[in-house]
Design a protein that fits this description.
2 copies of one chain form a homodimer. Chain A has 9 helices and no strands. By secondary structure, the first copy, chain A, is mostly helical. The interface between A and B is large, with 48 and 48 residues. Chain A binds a DNA duplex through helix 2.
Chain lengths: 190, 190
DNA sequence: GCATCCACCTAATACCTTTAGGCAAATGCC
DNA sequence: GGCATTTGCCTAAAGGTATTAGGTGGATGC
């Protein structure tokens, strides 16, 4: 038998590609086995189960996304940084819809705590150093930015904006303008 | 045999309850049949297939959500309306997580066009009458609000905010303050 | 009281998931 | 280089979900 040298890493990468092709929730252990021209049961020496596979793909996506974000933020500040970070999420989702969906996969809390998810929060916080916010408003702003990035990208990819008139690129830049303005004039607590 | 009088409507309602209990993507034709104490194949006279079931649940959720939104918006304007609408989404997601997930189900474009989804956009637009925005900024603002509502609720439900310090209720009110401020001082086009 | 129809059933096919146990290629040791 | 062990992939099997085809009996209408 031709040994294929399966490893969790190779399976995870192939799973991520599969996700981009057919959608994250269509990722199946069977299809993965088919791609490696191997019997399904063989994968279970490398993967605990189907859920484990999804978790690994999710972690991979979070890593990749965090790496891109770190790259984009390097040497930028203020609105420049805001735009760069926002575009990282949007572009990643467009290039890798399956991986992006994977990044939304709900991880077990203890797994999430060690994941690249924490880097994302840290980077958003770093971005806010270019604005004049102190705690707890900074945390509120981190959450707002996360919500807008994630919400916008999901809705855009889900076709939520597709019917209506102004193209989404224009909205995207205007939304970033608006967020920048908001962060510069963050309203004081009542 | 005790006839159960299945109908698409009853199945859809039961499916929605099932979604709230076990999660939207765990909703299965088999489980639904079990709940009605009926054989699986029997459901296929009332439902085209599994995808059809999900679509119906999604449409139900969108309707319910739109009804609640219309109710909340009645007689309100400005920030009052903004808060009310935002809370409709958040509360619905908390009360009915499965249905809320269903509302995000990607519908076929022609189905989406006839769905309550369009009412949602209209209501957000109506809300903006309390602020001083003209086209195309109004559309941009509609999309921004949709993104924030959806993004915030998803992240909060997905546990994205769970580890960190200030509680999410405080952030939520501050985010709504911030959105209100932003809509009152929408930045002009460059 | 009979014919009809509809609602639910049985049967069968086809995937996907997961576990248990087998065999042979690769690896390590002398 | 030959032998033992490990390990990587395989066969087999059980159980769950989706979906289609065709049957039967209880409810309905005349």
């Amino acid at each position: 038998m031709a040994r294929v040298r399966l490893t969790p890493e190779r399976l995870t990468r192939a799973g991520a590609e599969l996700a981009d092709e057919v959608g994250f929730d269509q990722v199946t252990v069977s299809e993965l086995a088919r791609r490696f021209d191997v019997k399904v049961a063989s994968l279970y020496s490398h993967l605990k189960n189907s859920h484990d596979l999804r978790t690994r793909i999710a972690l991979l996506a979070l890593e990749e996304l965090a790496d891109r974000a770190a790259d984009a933020l390097a040497g930028r500040a203020g609105k420049d940084a805001l735009t760069a970070l926002a575009n990282v999420y949007r572009d990643y989702a467009r290039e890798h819809p399956g991986r992006y969906a994977a990044a939304q996969f709900r991880l077990a809390p203890e797994v999430a705590a060690c994941s690249a998810g924490v880097r994302h929060a840290q980077m958003t916080r770093a971005l806010l150093r270019g604005y004049d916010l102190t705690e707890p408003d900074q945390t509120h702003a981190v959450r707002l930015l996360g919500s807008v990035f994630h919400g916008y990208v999901s809705l855009e990819m889900g076709g939520g904006f597709s019917h209506s008139a102004p193209d989404t690129q224009e909205t995207w830049t205007r939304v970033l303008d608006a967020l920048d303005a908001l962060l510069r004039n963050w309203p004081p607590s009542p």
